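Team,

Forwarding the record for the chain on the shared tracking sheet. I've put the sequence and predicted structure together so nobody has to dig through attachments.
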Amino acid sequence: QVQLVESGGGLVQAGGSLRLSCAASGLTVSSYAMGWFRQAPGKEREFVALIRSGSSTYYADAVKGRFIISRDNAKNTVILQMNSLKPEDTAVYYCAARSGLVRPSQAALGGLYDYWGQGTQVTVSS
């Protein structure tokens, strides 16, 4: 049984940082394409970042240069380090996993991912 559990969300002032974690069980994160998505109130879910099994990374333009996705294979965890946060980053952040290849052009297609976490709330105050 696969479980993805996000943690690390919270309330932070604009310009601050947060570190989100996605702890996986039932799968090995180094063998999966692992993505982060977010959904703000009243908006559609959007792609944030992807790390493929080969460790290549991809980011949405809105977060490029501010967010970093990485893996801790020893802990079977995916990390999203979020810096220089803005109020528009406020959303529920979700971790997702796909067992097959995810091409960069497909990274934002939520329907490709096989497993999803429950999400963690991030609120950035101005």
